Amino acid sequence: MTELMSKGIELMLAGMGIVFLFLAMLVVAINMMSALIQRFFPEAPNLAGTVTTLSSGTDKNIIAAITAAVHQHRSKHK
To answer: What is the DSSP string of 34-61?
Structure first.
């Protein structure tokens, strides 16, 4: 019985070791791929200051037409 238990524990430890090694290699591979992506494809510069808002150039007639269309749609589909 003790030989069977020792073989079971040995098998369990081997399996857990293999899983641990696989997960460690996976973490290393993901970190390496992330470093390669960061190196060859850096982030684009932030262009938030150069983008104009759409509301400043929107015509009041267009807003009125959209409002009327939404009101008409809501009145038909109550």
So the answer is: HHHHHHHSPPPPP-TTTPPPSGGG--HH
Cα 69 to Cα 63: distance, rounded to the nearest angstrom: 10
pLDDT digits (tens, 9 = 90+) for 42-75: 887 666 655 444 555 678 888 899 999 999 999 9
- Token digits of residue 49: 């200051």
What one-character DSSP code corresponds to residue 66? H
Exposed e or buried b per residue across 39-69, where buried means at least 16 C-beta atoms within 10 angstroms of its C-beta: eeeeeeeeeeeeeeeeeeeeeeeeeeeeeee
Task: Say whether pTM exceeds 0.85.
Answer: no
The domain limits of the chain are 1-42
